[in-house]
Amino acid sequence: MKMIKDRLVLLLVIGMAVGLLSACASDDASGEGEKEGEKVTLRMTWWGSQERHDRTQKVIDLYEEKNPNVEISAQFSGWDGYWNKLATQAAGGNLPDIIQMDYKYLSEYAGNGLLENLNPFIDSGVLNFDDVDPLYLDGGKLEDKLYAVNIGANAHTLVYDPSLFEKAGVEVPEPGYTWTDLKEMGQKLSDQLGEGVYGMQPNAGIMRFKHYLRENGVWLYNEDGSGLGYENDQLLVDYLQHTVDVLESGAAAPPELFMSAGTNVEQMPIVNEKTAVITDLHSNQILALEQAAGRPLALTIQPMLEGGELGHYVKPGQFFSVTSQSEKAEEAAKFIDFVTNDLEANEILNAERGVPISSKVREHLKPNLSDAGKKMFDYLELVEDYASEINEPDPQGATEIEDFFETQIEEAIYYGKITPEEAAALFRKKAEEVLANNQ
């Protein structure tokens, strides 16, 4: 997990990068493409599991085979350290041409001028979205400018192990179950599954808190990004108390069982049959989870707030963006178009990053999907019935705030170092200090 000082470094070096943009801006966006047949070298980076790396590299190989004048240098890493490395490259005017972008970082990177406006490439036909519903592109836009192309839609999900539910004699969670139902379910599972096996891996994370806020009809940030979007701190208290309750009761695994795993899929307790439920993932992760577990797992929606609003939304799983420091922006955009529309490339990717945005690609893939892939596609159809419109991208400063939540709130709650009331007050103080810069 990243420390707060790393986030401060990240924000500092992103800011420093702005001064270098005029020297590093691409000529391609103004319409000056590459000369036909000229050798082009692109750099591309992404984060993810080994499976994602292997699939993406095979697509790069395919693209190079179909475009012999293009060579793509791949830079792959896990999530940890990915953003700090990018920020350092940004400060040096050395960002890769194509970067995998996340929704929560979009405002910071686009707002600091580090991403190419892709609208000109749509107008010129380099990017073809004829088979893409605008709904799938909206998440990558700021002020009607497309800065990031969705490379796989997904949604917030709860993952469970049907075999452990059957072993425990507990009914699986059906859509419409509540937060109270989840606590009771976790307790029954822990009681029946025996020593060292628990009902759930708990989660007091910021992503899930956003879901809880949406169920309460509010959002984490206000409309102009100058403050928090909820006034009643009891919302955060109640949310965190849920995690405290399941930990204290034994319905959830103790933190030492899951904290060391981090984002390493192979070490997650549900993979190793130490928990029956993991409460906070994205639907595209079912592919890596089932591969690591070697047995069927299942997806369902998050718990609902009785009498509350719909908390789910269809989310861009990840994006590909072209950086404004690229000198080959048009060629970079051509590769993104290839990933979006090429059927053979998507057979290789197999929707590992999420459900493809092209309807033509989805129709082509679905009959031949693995069981895990079909579950992911079916889950997106299910979640549409429990979803409302996605919120605007998070404001500048959001990543600092959310990393603070992760390291100073979430972790402290797991280990009982802070009460929910103390956590709510501490978080508001920090968030308002950061967001005041947007006023």
From TrEMBL:
Pfam families: SBP_bac_1 (PF01547)
Keyword Signal: yes
SUPFAM superfamilies in alphabetical order: Periplasmic binding protein-like II
Alphabetical UniProt keywords: Signal
Protein name, UniProt field: ABC transporter substrate-binding protein
N-terminal signal peptide: 1-25
